[in-house]
C-alpha cells in the first residue's frame, strides 16, 4: 500500500529534472513561437512556466479536486494570456502537453517499479488514470482559454481596423473630410455611425465632406446607415456634403427611395472642397 503523499513527494523531487529533460528534447527546428526562440529571457521564462506546471500538476496527488482546479486555474490563465504563447500555434502547444504526459507516465512507471511489492493492480490503474484524465482536462481547459484570448485579440484588432477605416480629417476649424474606401458591410456601417459622430463632435466642425468615390457597392442596410448618419450629424449641427457617388450606388439609393432633397451633392471631392471655400 502506498500513500498519495509519498507519490506527491516522489513527483515533486523530479520537477526541475523533468523541465530540463523536456527542454533538452524539444525539437526547435520543428516548432514555432515560444518554443523556437533563441532569446535567453524567453527560454528562461518558458522553462519557469514548465516547472510551475509540474508544481501545480503534482498537487493532484494530495489536493481535493475543487482546490486543485482553483489553484491550477492561475497557471492556465497566465500562460494562455502570455504574449509569447499567443504567437505560438495551438497545435505546437498541445504537442508539448502530450510530450509532458509521456514524461509523467514514464515517471509513474518508475514509481510503480520501486513500489511494486506494495501496489495492487487496481492502485496501479488508478495512478495512470489520474495522470491521463487530469492531463486531458488540462489540455481542454487550456485550449478553451487560449482560443478565448485569441478571439478577444482578433475582435480588438478588427475594431481598430474598422475605426481606422473611418478617419475624419479636419480641413479647417469648421470643415472635416471623411473619405470612404472599399466595401462597407453592416459592421463597418455601425462603426461609421458611432465614430463619425464622436469625431465630428470632438473636432467641433459644422460641416462634413463625405466622399464615396472609393465605394463601389452599397446594400440596402448600409445605404440606410449612411442616411441615418447624415440625419444624426444634422442633429448635432453638422451639415453633410456628399461627393463622388458612383452611378451604381446612385441607382441603389433611388431604388430604395432615399431622398437627397436636403443634402448637398457634388460630382467629385475636388468640387466639394472648392465649394466649401477651403
Question: Can you walk through the features of this model?
Answer:
The chain has 278 residues and is an alpha/beta fold. The protein has two domains: 4-159, Globins (Globin-like), CATH 1.10.490; 169-275, STAS domain (Transcription Regulator spoIIAA, 2-Layer Sandwich), CATH 3.30.750.24. 64% of the residues lie in helices and 9% in strands. It contains eleven helices and five strands; from the N terminus they run αααααααββαβαβαβα. β1 and β2 form a beta hairpin.
- The CATH class of the largest domain is identified as Mainly Alpha
What is the strand arrangement across the widest sheet?
Answer: 1-2-3-4-5
Cα distance spanning the termini = 91 Å
Order of helices and strands: HHHHHHHEEHEHEHEH
Main sheet overview = 5 strands, mixed
What does the average pLDDT come to? 87
Q: Which percent range fits the helix content?
A: 55-70%
Give the second-level CATH assignment, the architecture of the largest domain: Orthogonal Bundle
CATH topology of the largest domain: Globin-like
